[in-house]
Design goal:
This protein is of the alpha/beta class. The chain is built from 7 helices and 6 strands, in the order E-H-E-H-H-H-E-H-E-H-E-E-H.
């Protein structure tokens, strides 16, 4: 199982929706499955952005079919197993407080480590409110890349002064 960990930072739920839509649209067009574990639902924000952009109706329907409401947990175990039967990749979007995100990530990585799942791609996108953290470096050190309104990037390309202090990252099997 190839697991990639991305992080993103948002000012408010409207900013989060605006940041996610281009990335999610591209992933859906490429056949990815999207799962969400959201502390705060962003369904209204997603719909507001979708209503203000020019987007193909079929793609818009696929995006609105994603569960954008508040969710405490998702059945990622079933999704990972289902995904092993197809060629699709799985995107798991997680937002909440730093400690909640870490606990959810540990559950996901533990499941992947402890189960025999065929080689597939899982991207875990951890989304942090800019109001809820003090030291961004501790978050960046645990991720492979960063997601912002212009897409996925190397962390060093977004934060020019960033130097990974160590190679500690969330387990990536």
């Amino acid at each position: 199982m190839k697991v990639k960990s991305l992080c993103g930072f948002y000012a408010n739920e409207s900013h989060l929706a605006t940041m996610l839509l281009p990335y999610i649209s591209k992933k859906i067009q490429n056949g990815a499955q999207i799962e969400t574990i959201l502390k705060n639902g962003i369904e209204n924000n997603i719909n507001e952005v979708l209503n203000n952009i020019n987007i193909e109706k079929e793609l818009k329907n696929k995006i609105t079919n994603v569960n954008w409401t508040e969710t405490k947990d998702c059945n990622f175990e079933k999704k990972i197993n289902d995904m092993s039967q197809t060629n699709s990749e799985l995107e798991i979007l997680v937002n909440g407080e730093k400690e909640e995100i870490e606990k959810i990530n540990e559950k996901i990585y533990s499941y992947i480590r402890n189960n025999n799942v065929e080689e597939k791609n899982v991207n875990i996108i951890n989304l942090y409110s800019m109001k809820e953290f003090e030291n961004v470096n501790t978050i960046l050190d645990k991720h492979d890349a960063i997601l912002n309104t212009s897409g996925e990037h190397k962390i060093e390309d977004v934060f020019k002064e960033y130097n990974r202090k160590n190679n500690i990252k969330v387990v990536n099997d």
